[in-house]
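Give me the fold.
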Amino acid sequence: MMRGGNRRLGDWGETKACDFLVRHGFTIIERNFQTPAGEIDIIAKLRGDYYFVEVKTRGDGDMAYDVAVTAEKKRRLRKTVGSYCYKRGLREAGLVLASLMVIVDKHSSTIRCRLAVLI
């Protein structure tokens, strides 16, 4: 279970991730879609494709760019995406599973975002 401070940081990072996606032409469809298998942080759409985005917020440093989404997390995400598509009736759409790293530099009070497609 996530502690209160981590949850607030995670929520803040998800908001920054949504801002980043909107600036890059995405439409936010839904946030925090939950099933017993897991949660999808952000569901967004760009040019007819649906992006299922796992957001990771990290401080700047060596561990900021580590493999933040494990194989087990990817497996749960795929299962959750399947549930979302079934519940929303998505059939012919392009589906993209992605991660979005929100890197916080406390010294300069800046953030960087990096969107990556998960395989």
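The radius of gyration is 14 Å.
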